[in-house]
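@channel sequence for tomorrow's demo:
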Amino acid sequence: MKVLFATDGGKQSDAAVESIHRLALGEDDEVKVISVVDMALPMAIDIYGGFLPDTSELEKTARENAAKVVSETTEKLKAYADSGKVSVSTDVLFGSPDSRIVETAEEWHADLIVVGSHGYSRWERLLLGSVSDSVVHHSPCSVLVVRSNTAE
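structure tokens (generated this afternoon):
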């Protein structure tokens, strides 16, 4: 089984790691851990100066944070894995999270996508969007959406 695990490092991701452990993966199974950096910023131009801020430092910080999230998640997964039988790979991607998750699942031929849910209310989903909802509706394979056990 090929499991694509998309994480942003939140507590929902920790609950998703526990869910992957419950799948009882074996020797022939693979898990790919990804984190997607969304650098989409509103392109507003200052009408007085026309200055657009340099976002390279912001991008560098976002890339480093995503790499740290992927590394920490991989360590948690390996702690659950039975003596390293499950193959774990990682990747940091850039773009729209929902699109990149679905594209990666298609390219990698994933059997299952695992994502955490932030548990947004109806209004929060309307304003912020829901990555997990979009992945569920556009995925080429099954999707496991995991909610955190702890109340906010």
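heads up for whoever presents: Strands lie at 2-6, 30-37, 87-94, 112-117, 142-147.
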